[in-house]
Design a protein that fits this description.
The protein is α/β, with parallel strands linked by helices. It has a single domain, classed as P-loop containing nucleotide triphosphate hydrolases (Rossmann fold). Helices cover 50% and strands 15% of the residues. The chain has nine helices and eight strands. The strands form two sheets. Strands 2-3-1-4-8 form a five-stranded parallel sheet, sandwiched between helices. Strands 6-5-7 form a three-stranded antiparallel sheet. Helix 1 crosses helix 9, helix 2 crosses helix 3 and helix 6 crosses helix 7. The longest helix has 15 residues. The termini are close together. The structure holds adenosine-5'-diphosphate and zinc ion. The site of zinc ion has 8 residues, from loops.
């Protein structure tokens, strides 16, 4: 089984992905995480992607798809079940993913769309904080730490993602509506799209995702 977890920035793709991959033994591929790692390691991809991401724009389809191909290639020897998180994010990427599935003999993915209203997305993104040491995530509005700025788990310092500031957040949501939302129409027409309300608790959303997977696979 292959899955795409789709949704606007702040819809909880990352959090849900981590749970789903454990429960169903899928291999998690997050293009956002892969790009952030590339930026940290100053690879050729990272150098091209850094400023684009800081502006809240999308990295080019060619760059992301090529990166994805090189992530899948070595993993494909040991698995045929992936969860794609953050890809496809444009209509050309839908076709590119279909091509990659052919190339690597993977079944075509089902798509789960996490729906969250805009006002909630803005609070989730601008309020998001991440522990610099253990990567635990918090939110100053919805899930504050006991002591401001200090991780509950490991007492590490909290940081923000560079693209979680208010201006970049607005730009990311604009880009989502313009370039990513059209992806839903294509998957809807293919009959592989499942949209769920992702405003509830992490557990509620996880249950909805499990239900879809178990009813269909
Ligand atoms: P978000 O929380 O905004 O969904 P991600 O961690 O998935 O964030 O991605 C962060 C940034 O990485 C995006 O705003 C975009 O610039 C870039 N990116 C990630 N995936 C893709 C993709 N499939 N195509 C183009 N750019 C991407
Ligand atoms: Zn921590």
């Amino acid at each position: 089984m292959n899955l795409v977890l789709f949704g606007p920035p702040g819809s909880g793709k990352g959090t849900q992905s981590e749970r789903v991959v454990k429960q169903y033994s899928l291999t998690h591929i997050s293009t956002g995480d892969a790009l952030r790692t590339a930026i940290r390691n100053k690879t050729a991809v990272g150098l091209k992607a850094r400023e684009v991401i800081e502006r809240g724009e999308l990295v080019s389809d060619e760059l992301v798809t090529e990166m994805l191909r090189e992530i899948i290639r070595p993993l494909r020897d040991t698995t045929d079940s992936f969860l794609f998180d953050g890809y496809p994010r444009t209509t050309p990427q839908v076709e590119q993913l279909a091509n990659l599935c052919e190339e690597f003999s993977l079944s075509h993915p089902a798509v789960i769309n996490l729906h969250v209203p805009e006002e909630t997305l803005i609070l989730r993104l601008t309020g998001r904080r991440i522990c610099a040491d253990c990567k635990a995530t918090y939110n100053i509005y919805f899930k504050p730490t006991r002591q401001a700025g200090v991780c509950d788990e490991c007492s590490g310092p909290l940081t923000k993602r560079v693209d979680d500031n208010p201006e970049t957040t607005r730009e990311r949501l604009r880009v989502y509506h313009e370039q990513s939302a059209p992806v839903l129409r294509i998957y809807g027409e293919q009959g592989v799209l499942y949209t769920i309300d992702a405003t509830g608790s992490t557990d509620d959303v996880a249950k909805k995702i499990s239900r879809i997977i178990e009813e269909n696979y």
